Amino acid sequence: MPTTPPPTVAKSTAPPPRSVLRDPAFLRLWAGTTASGLATWALPFVLGLAVLHRDLGAAGLGLVLAARTAGFLAAVAVGGVLADRHSRRAVVLWSALAAAVAAPLLAAGLGRSLVLMTAAAALAGAGQGACRPAFQALTAETVTPGHRQQANAAMTMAVRGSTLAGPALTALLAAFLDVSTLLLGIGLLWLVAALVPGKGTAATAAAPAAGTAPRAGFRREFLDGIGEARRHPWFLAGLAALVAVIALGYSATSVALPLISRDRYGTEWVLAAAMTAYTVGALGGALVIARWRPRSQGWAAFAGLAAYGVAPLSLMLPVHPVAVVAAYAVAGVGIELFNVPWFTATQREVAPEKLARVSSLDFLVSYGLAPIGLAVIAPAIDAFGATPVLAVCAAACFLVPAAAALVPTARHFTR
Question: What Rg, from alpha-carbon coordinates, does the chain have?
Fold first, then answer.
């Protein structure tokens, strides 16, 4: 079977930095990715403030957020194909600029036109969706293979850190700024995401040489990306395990945690403490995996993913609330012990000219099925009770990653 040659890296007389954090090209990419993550997280929170200020109704909020999700899902596959056809840097630029333009449109429609806000939210979601696979592929172009795990850990630490500090920062800004100004601030974050990252140092096979046959159509190229994913059994197994944990485990805990915090423990602090512990645990997991290189990285990653099962397990048992908080911390550690090697292996193993399409498939399946889980879990809890539903979800979190670990090539995330 012919193999895809590795990407050609631009020659340089300077030795590579000992740490990726000393690489200016990566730091620019990190800043852009962090800005896009902050903007993505901030929009639902700021729109929630609009509901509190009566500039937007609850039904309107649901419609706007649904439009953003639809825009994301529609654009993530398109963005993957475009990022493999053209410059990944250009795709990041134009998609982030689209999201930046959406922010003032949201501000203009606030309290005036729900139709305008819905269209702007769809545009914001499309920009976010097109950015994701392009950023993933641009990381592989910017960072040398030996530093990619550290780079991916730094990326996820930035996202988790913004999730931890973001609510307090946004609440502080809301004391001095109105919702429209906060929306414009989100647009500025997207401008940073668009303008700050530099070009990758590796050549891609995106542009066809002069005189060669014309490109296949969009559908054919997207199917080629699926075909590339199918060449890697560990990737398909990991995607199935990730979907099970997100659609069942994460959805169940998202719905059940507020109910159990209120009904079993009679306080909201369990909800707040558990979610904070999850983020802190994820930060700890990213710190660990930035330097840890397990001999069987695939098995270690699947074990980390399966650790999410302790979260629904803690909610179904009559344990002390501290045990629930500790379980969420363990789940946070485990999710990053999976995420970082998963992204790193994808960047290493997938053919470089198809990396964005395979990454888009990852995001499309993961994000696309999550709303289905959220929609199903609540009626299931009403029909059967929280304990049986949580038991099924915990079992799925433990068993599906364990089964995925048995797939050929899964032990090392490599062919």
Answer: 21
